[in-house]
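User: Second chain of the day. Same drill as before.
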Amino acid sequence: MSINWASVYTGPIGQLLGDLSPTTFMQLMTQGSQAQLSQLNNTKSQDGTLISGWTTLQSDAQAVNGALFTLNNPTTFQQMSATSSNSSILTATDSSAQQGSYSLYVDQLAQAEIDQGQPPTAITSNSTALGFSGSFQIYTGTQPTSSITISSSDTLQQIASAINAANSGVTASTEQLANGNWTLAIQGNTTGAANNIHYVATSPTGTSSPLYQLGLWNTSLSTPTYFSGEVLQSAQNAAVNFGSVASTSNEITSSTNTFTNLVPGLTVNTNSQGSAATITVGPNTSGMTKSIQQFVTNWNQWVSDTQNLAEAGTVTATGTGSGSNYTYQSNKNQVIKSGQPQGVLNQVQTIMGGIIGSGAYQSLSDIGLSFNGSGKLVLNQSTLTNALGQNPSAVSTLFQNLYSALTPTNSVGALQAFYSGSQSIAGQAIAYDTTQQTQTNTQITMLKNQLTAAEQQAVIQYGQWVNQIAHYSQESSLVSAMFNQNSGSNSTGG
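Assistant: Same format as last time:
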């Protein structure tokens, strides 16, 4: 809280105390330390910026190596894909599928059973108590549900809910028929002939069973079965055969519409009965291109970040020959003053741009990869697609040779020497700057403690100074009073 010294002391003393407030006094006493603290904070910020810059370039180089490692793996270029001449037959495949063409015909699709109850007594509402009770089970294949128990107060909708809650492998719903009456519909949750539905009355049996009242069980037969016409759709397997026309003699079945047993490594999904298609299995050039594009993207990111963080500036030329003019533009974003990042980048680019191997493709330019003026990779999609379509194995060999050149077995290559481990160029730079930042933090902490002590001392000194001024003020007032008294006496005596 500031003090209005002018109300306490008049004249120059009040003005002096007002001009030199406690805050101003403290700032004067600590201004040297405050300037030092500001400098240390700037140093800490610069250290953090350096750490961030080196970490970015380290991550970029590691990403380039990771993408190159993927391209070094032969399986990357052994990917196969399948296409179908009929969109009703969709296909997927893995690398174990054999290249070739296969003709298929879909004889039938897999389906789940659908039943509809035929109650002996009309049910006119799905929300009115039905008046019968008991328990029963529903089987899908050989798997029974837990017992489903209903009471005489249950409605048709509540019975459907009880069936669904029993985890019976079926889904029950209520349906209103054309004549206005209601019934249960039971649909299997799983396709395939082995998952047919049947019903078993547990208590009571005969015409008193809820199954009979719901029209799901004919008690006149010795074993659980259905009323005629009750099965709206039978459970069945999907079936296909090799060829372009229907043939049941050599068909292959599946409980679902997905086949994994037609051709090793090939998955076929059937969507339309009576469909014929030719499935062609060949190199997955799209997947291979995606891996190469990732390498290009990672490389270009490394180039961009290096130019942004570590280049001092750029020289631009205009004109040609003797009329050429050169201008230099400094890089205001430069963080790293070392020339090592750009040097390593140039070294790696030289290897990538040279003759890498002796196979069908000897350089990256042979498969459509070239460097532009800024050192970034440019991809010629047409050239790459042709190379992958004609000889994916040779493209694989090219990248294996490149990986060996950049990461030699018996020594540390330029790429790994830059990013890998604490002894790498980036690793050592990050460690050094981190140590510097830690030391600066320690200095900041010590200086802050000193400032706190100095501020406390300044408060004490300010108080002492005010007391001294007050003392001088009192003495000045006493002298003035005595002078005025003596001056008055002399005037009277004259």
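Confidence is low (pLDDT under 50) at residues 220-229.

User: Great, on to the next one.
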